[in-house]
Amino acid sequence: MARKLKQVDAVLVGMGWTGSIMARELTKAGLSVVGLERGAGRSPAQDFALPGIRDELKYRLRFQLMLDNGTETITMRHTPDEAALPMRRWGAFPLGDGVGGAGTHWNGVTWRNLPSEFVLRSHLEQRYGKKTIPADLTIQDWGVTYDELEPYYERFEKLCGTSGKAGNLRGQIIEGGNPFEGPRVSEYPNKPLIMSQAGLIFTAAAKKLGLHPFPTPSSNNSAPYTNIEGQTLGQCQYCGHCEYFGCESNSKASPNICIMPVLMADKRFELRTHAYVKNLVYDKRAKKVRGVVYIDRETGEELEQPADLVVLCAYPFNNVSLMLTAGIGQPYDPRTGKGVVGKNFCLQVMSGVQIFVEDEINPFIGTGVNPAAIDDFQGDNFDHTGLGFFGGGYLYPSISGGRPIQVRAVPPGTPRWGSAWKTATTEWYNHTFPISAHGASYAWRTNYLDLDPNYKDAIGRPLVRMTYNYTPNDKKMSQFLTDKAVEIARAANAKIIGTPNPRTGNFDNINGQSSHHTGGAIMGSDPRTSVINRYLQNWEASNLFVMGRAAFPQNPGYNPTGTIGALAYWSANAITTQYLKNPGPLIRT
Amino acid sequence: MAENDVPRRSFLKTAGAAGTLAASALAGALPRAAEAQTPPAQPAAIPPAPEPLLTLTADEAAFFSAAYDTIIPADRLSPSGTDCGLVTYIDRQLAGAWGNGARLYRNGPFLPARPEHGYQLPLTPREYFAAGIKAANVWSHKTYGKDFDRLPPADRAAGLTAMEKGTAKFDGIEAQPFFEAILQSAMEGFFADPMYGGNRNKVSWRMVGYPGLPATWAAKAEAYRGKRVAIEPQSIADFS
Question: Do B207 and A422 touch (CB under 8 A)?
Fold first, then answer.
């Protein structure tokens, strides 16, 4: 039996980007807030310090900053008819851990979604006709528009010190920025990062083809910056150790440096690390979540934290799992299409082609965000008539470092070992990079999350089961985007072009893909087709809010963090300006 | 089996001589680095005296040594895998947390798996490599009449190729995934920071031109763009 603690105004599950943003906004509104984090606290000055942080084996290959699979993992299968197997160690993706969550080990890519993405189904039906959308393509509108979110995108960028170049300022198209983006009210807080040689090659090739290259928005600060919380970020050192690593120069925005110092000085906030949340205490009759039960990993004791307001700020898998185990909302059934919790799980459809060039690339001098991209083939920026798919992605030279255990491509036909391999590796290490497509993952009827019947985590909770495979829409889109990458490779005067790798087969757990999981607790305008309303408030339990990319009805071809941050600020604003005055559903049905 | 009784599991004792040879070979491969404004690279260090093994048996060490010397043969670019410290690397890895199943989800059931599911066995890496080496030597005996480490270089290469292509059939442990595990461990040991025991004298970093630490390039990112960065690589130990 859990020992019951003193009631607080709000309890947050998970202390990454959304947990720290929500904690800050709620304490500012005068609430007492407890933040529960399963992992450790993190001190950038200690934990991300030179020289130890530059350790590819420890952080990239052995996943030092990531969740221990022995604590919890997910299971995977391709179709609803199969048995799922556990991901026994991270491969295609890792999940983060500790204070800061994925916000400590991300690359820093900070996009805004296209305005059309927020009204995707309406937009596509209007442009192409209802009949063109396959029945299994279960895409939806978000219930919120780009214009509504714009101030919150801006706020998140000013929290992070995002570096970039506006392409659309209040409707005016600006040379050198992304001409396809939604209108921005202000320029980026920081100038673009220094372009790498790969970025220059990509930019020149894209221009030759009449495309519109621009600097990728990046929360690796190009210059020192003081953010809206008064926290100072450093200048990016182009060290090539962003993804999977913490940042030693405090230049990559993270919850740890952007917000946590302010929160830790605030008496209204209490951080509890090593707090492994077991379940939500759900009063089904009253439709209220009364609190959260967790295990204090430092004592082993089971504790109940009662709260008026409960906010799920964990990874999509955990947010969905806590709702399913508590019986909040109807679980999604892929056979009937009924139910909502677990629905529209998406990932990201990545592909590309390696090119081998004369130039010295110096892959080790760079940032997590290689600062060049084109958005010409993103979303509905191009006419999809007759193409047989919807969606798209951005194309970019995808090097985020020259860490040699993993980054050492050789031309096709080279043996994988022996003297010939050594010779080719030596010849090409500094002369190659991939041109990649960062593709959308549009929701499909059979891709969803539920609870696995066979496998349990370290405290006996069922693992989340991911039923996921590449869809017919994904495969056609991936072929299209990969062909575009090859066109750019040709225009780049590559000496050798590698073998293009569009997604053709099954999703696999092994090869690095993306940790941009979305959906499962999606937002929308109708409780019959979504889990949370436009303010991220659960339709059933009105004192439960669900943050993060679990809310995305489908995943556009962008990295999700910009939108995650914007949605957290948007939701926090609704809570502090509307909900607290009159706790209850913010949207009446 | 008489030949197996010959005290041939002494790869480390012979490493010194091979290392000297490889060191001079390496020195000859350095003209690119020598163009640099920075000091000329030092010759590869002679591997230290034989080191005690933490966990590997003599048979296992001999297998790894033979496999690594085939994957990374001594040539003008680097000393052999063994002389680069790869056996020390794998010995330490298998003796430590990773080798003993840390961060691995080990609960059953162990259901029939497709390759897309990734590693699905109940074995820790330490147990897996032990079983794999036994199976590989049984196969090597059947095919060539000798343990793998006893084969001449051409047969070792042919043996690894058969495992890589999946034409070699082992009992128990599957040959192809076992080969992938060996190859992966070789690349990790060869390219990881030297503090893990492989990549002695930062030999692989010199080979490809990876400068290592501290990687604080902000002031040089533009000046070095498109130009070869020929500087003495530095490792974690150099800053410790």
Answer: yes
